Amino acid sequence: MTPAAYVLEYHLVNYRRTWRSSALSTMVLPLLTMLGFGLGVGGYVTTGVDGTAYLDWIVPGLIASTALQTAFGEATWPVLSGFEWVRSYFGQAAAPLRVADVLGGHLAFMMFRVLVSVSAFVLVAAAFGTLRSPWALAVLPLSVLIGFASAAPAMAYTASIPSDSYLAILFRFAVLPMSLFSGVFFPIDSLPDPLLWVAWALPLWHAVDLTRAATLGLNPGLAGLGHLLYLILWCVAGWFLAHWRFQRRLVV
Amino acid sequence: MPSLIHARGLIKRFGDFTAVDGIDVDVQPGEAFGFLGPNGAGKSSTMRMIGCVSPPTDGVLRILDMDPLRDGPRIRARLGVCPQLDNLDVELTVRENLTTYARFFGIPRATARRRADELLDFVQLGERAGSKVEPLSGGMKRRLTIARALVNEPDIVLLDEPTTGLDPQARHLVWERLFRLKQQGVTLVLTTHYMDEAEQLCDRLVVMDGGKIVAEGSPRSLIEQHSTREVVELRFPTEDQGAYASKLDGIGDRTEVLPDRILLYVADGDDALAEVHRRSLSPASALVRRAGLEDVFLHLTGRTLVD
């Protein structure tokens, strides 16, 4: 086993102690958003979007957005705690682990958390009959991709700040705009030009578009390949950034 | 046999600030070695370099005859580290803290569980194995951190201020456990600013000040080199103790005037006190005591508070 697997194992043992507190919200949150946005807002959007019922159209967006939210949740407070409060990273750095093991093991655990949240959402969505294609199974690897593409840079950010007041900035100026302007709730075509560029630059829209193609059974075409490559770019850049910031904080 | 820790001209700089300024250290197997010094003397920076989590800026450093820059993980596999600030996992149980940490060393689960139970007995936490860490007292957490540092049966145990912040009972229990380890032949390297801790535990120590080593030896030899055998503490019933200093000329090898008392460093305290009385000086109180490491420490590093 590689040392990073021991770090993953450690996070899973921790999760066994704390999963109950997050389990309820993992199930209830998708249910509430589906009811609120899908049925509530969907009741007004009677024409659907591009010929698709609003609920079916919005579900993949919500799934990708859930993967992103979970990744950001895991890559912020728990990471800062590893440096500042529980200081668990320093204990790990004193053991025969490399920075890449400490980082990789924690990221692997975050991907596990993303998969748990997204699976719950997929189950609820399936129960509502909104998944139109067997391709919907592809949302699991896709959510790991968007999860990694958001968790890695978020970890780099968290590893660079001294206190949690800086995390509010991240949620206000990165997560919230990204959730609003990435085609989760409405097609990005309706955005004015500058915001369109924002949507293209940030990773979420690319994941939303791919996820939507998967649950609706559409062919994403060449644009899909572009989305994949762009998300992988975020993953790779995020990994190197996070590794650099972790190194700076753990090995001084 | 080569030294377990070998440093020559070891330097650590942070920007313009030099935390460790060219120190030479050798620690032999089975030794209990101490870094003694005030806050900011460079003790913790030295410990972090030895722990292979802080690359030296300059100089030679070899741990277990390996290079910390190249063989970090291999060296750390054979070190036990008890950091200054506890970093236990508060959500986990006492036993899980040891078993999960053992896994970082690639120790199989069954072995980890067995070793955790042995170590919890050793640090007298066996009865708390299943409880969470959060409600434990400071002393219990410290003992658990020490147990965690032993989980890989290390060749060297690094202890950064192992008893800072503990009450006297808890400190003595920690010392007793560390002494047992020493008797078992484990090499201990510790930092402290407690003189009694250094005297209790260390076979040999260095006194650090401003990043440099200012003295080295056994506690006994340091006292012999840098202090007299006894100290007489005199308090005069006046605002200005200094006014009496000249009247005490020639009694001690050295006289130190403090705001509230005068210290005479002498070979024989009772003789010196008799001389004080012969000069018709009548201190409000007089105390004769053996010189300790604290006298050496204050003599070498000064009385100015460093914050």
TrEMBL record, chain A:
It is a multi-pass membrane protein. The keyword Protease does not apply. The chain crosses the membrane at residues 24-45, 57-80, 107-129, 135-157, 169-188, 222-242. Residues 21-249 form the ABC transmembrane type-2 domain. It comes from Actinoplanes palleronii. Its main location: membrane. It comes from the Bacteria. This is Transport permease protein. Belongs to the ABC-2 integral membrane protein family. Keywords: Antibiotic resistance, Cell membrane, Membrane, Transmembrane, Transmembrane helix, Transport. It is found in: Cell membrane; Membrane.
TrEMBL record, chain B:
This is ABC transporter. It comes from the Bacteria. Keywords: Antibiotic resistance, ATP-binding, Nucleotide-binding, Transport. PROSITE patterns: ABC_TRANSPORTER_1, ABC_TRANSPORTER_2. It is found in: Cell membrane. Coiled coil: none annotated. It is a peripheral membrane protein. It comes from Actinoplanes palleronii.
